[in-house]
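WARN retry 2 of 3 for item q-0093 after timeout on previous attempt; input resubmitted unchanged.
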Amino acid sequence: MAYIKGDERHATCFLCDAGAADPSEDEHNLVVARGSSCFVILNLFPYNTGHLMVAPYRHVGELDDLTDEETSDIWTWTRKSIAAHRATTQPQGFNIGINLGEVAGAGVPGHFHLHVVPRWGGDTNFMPVTGDTKVLPEMLADTYATLAPALKASS
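OK item q-0093 returned
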């Protein structure tokens, strides 16, 4: 709710900040892997446990504005993200999504990113609707510790 109410929103682009940060700060910034033109980051406000985002380092908002290298790198890391989840968290399915534009749900409309959301049977419940609360069974640090080694091994 802090994000929705605006209390936790960044004054700058958090994706640009995380991508430009020194790799020694990756765990603090939740960056689980880095490619040549994009990186994989845990969503600080996840839809579900293990929710990842794949984003280019470059601040670009539209799919059509991505270079061929960025497009290829994003899809490569999306596949690697799915493989890392399958090897470590064994989800039963995935939602892969791109929200282009604020009206389409883009929380960061100026910086393109692709969502990789693992899904398990029964992972949705009444809590978000009735209690304004998402129940996540794992802390972000634990998710990072699980996924980062699997993604880094695929680099």
